[in-house]
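How a chain folds remains the central question behind the approach discussed here. In the encoding step, the backbone of a single protein was reduced to a row of integers, each denoting a local shape. We regard such an encoding as a compact summary of how the chain folds. The sequence in question and its structure tokens are set out directly beneath this paragraph:

___
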Amino acid sequence: VTRTPGVRGRTWISMLCDDPAADVRLAAVTLLATADDAELLEKAWQTVLNDRDPRFAQLVEPLREKRDSLRR
């Protein structure tokens, strides 16, 4: 979705990180965690840091590593 011409996938995926359903947020963050884009990774990072669902805690370390590697 994020690479489909004519589709504003970045916007949709970012919006899904704020969805009321935790399963939807988790799926969106999991997708964003695979991105090589600093802005998308930052959205995923902010989501996992602020979400109360305990499943998001398992994504903190992998996202931290991905952000760090992108910054190098």
